[in-house]
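Please, why this fold?
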Amino acid sequence: MKIQPPEALLKMCCGETYENMWAVSLDRAQHLRTCNYWYLVDNYATPHTAFRTKEHMEAWLNLLGLALEEPLPQKTGEHGSAKVVGRYKRLSVVCSQEEWDSFRPEKEVRMVSNGRYTAAKMFTEKDGTAVMVVPNPNCKWRKEYDHAETRALNDKGILAA
């Protein structure tokens, strides 16, 4: 059985669907122009997210039920690109902590929102689309995680909250 968030929670959100993504592995010169990232994902040719390790990118793709149309180069530092197959949604909600706590998701993960790592709850729509739900930055009660701790977990491919 698919777990859905409370209907009231979905009425208080805004979001976006990401469905035209490309993954890129950077060469050394490109890498030096980033904040230590080796892998990027764009959506409609607009930067979407970035990863310091291949393990983190692969964990992110798996979490969202996405895949690469073809593999990126095995060796870090070799340029390559591949179409990301699939789509996902990200929703930002304004709600009380009680409403947030009432939502029992399929998974809980950490994600960046407004420059901070915070808790996100995930569910899958009937068509198989993964949906990440995150409290809006205006929700003063929202939990935030330490950047260094979260980056260390992410670099190992660990995304859990």
User: Anything to note?
Assistant: The mean pLDDT is 90. The CA atoms of residues 23 and 138 lie 31 Å apart.
